[in-house]
Amino acid sequence: MLYDLSLHMGYIYDVPASGARHVMRLMPLSLTNRQRLVAGSITVSPTPDEQSHFVDFFDHPATAFMLRAPHETLDIRMQARVQVESQPIAADFSPLLADLPEEIAGIWSLAPDSPHHFLGESPRLTQAREIADYARNCAMPGLTAMQIAHALCARINKDFTYDPDATTVDTTPLEAFRLKRGVCQDFTHIMILALRSLGIPAGYVSGFLRTIPPPGKERLEGADAMHAWVRIWCGETNDWIELDPTNNIPAGTDHIVVAYGRDYSDVVPVIGVLKSYGGQRTVQAVDVVPLK
């Protein structure tokens, strides 16, 4: 499937800001047998005084830039063309939950995709007993790691309501869990915490979701902004799989990957510091258009 993507992120400051330093992770990745970035560009207005490119720990390209002069707005636009490949349906050869620790122990690598990075606490995800208890109800005896992941994905989708007004980017997973409402970031964080509490490595995927559904299909939740879903390590044979608890589906040709991380803090699309006071308003628009 070939897509044209466009993203607009705008920031409007109550008082002109200066000395701003930001890092962007917005460009879709090229991933072997998964997706290919055909072309892409990012424009920033005002034009940065300094700009540099680097690759972070998780092998994702990022751009850092600085604006010295006072500015009332910051406008970021990304355009890209991406080819997404269909993924074969994988048979479940994942280990039983009781056998998973032995397979994890057999992994000696500490490469960015090593399951060891996705087991413990991370900057935004700390242990929560309520979420761990919730997870245990899905971990029935005799289930494999993959079966448990699918069960949790389905249960979160059933028990939680998609509500973009219920939470903010800073809402904790436990707060969203108690509300039983939120957006894709909340559902993703809750599912990651639930899986990790069971000893199943899980991480955060940031990306885009097709905004125009195929004929006869309903529009997916979360398509109006950048999307998030979960990456789960299911043993050496199945390796990593990706599930979208917001829509209770495996990540497929409707999902375009921008970044992988332990939680949202590793993949924030735009993050930075600036000198100013007062508040700010933000706007975001996403369009993911399939090409004929």
Automatic annotation (TrEMBL):
Residues 176-247 form the Transglutaminase-like domain. InterPro entries: Bac_transglu_N, Papain-like_cys_pep_sf, Transglutaminase-like. SMART domains: TGc. It holds the Pfam family Bact_transglu_N. This is Transglutaminase family protein.
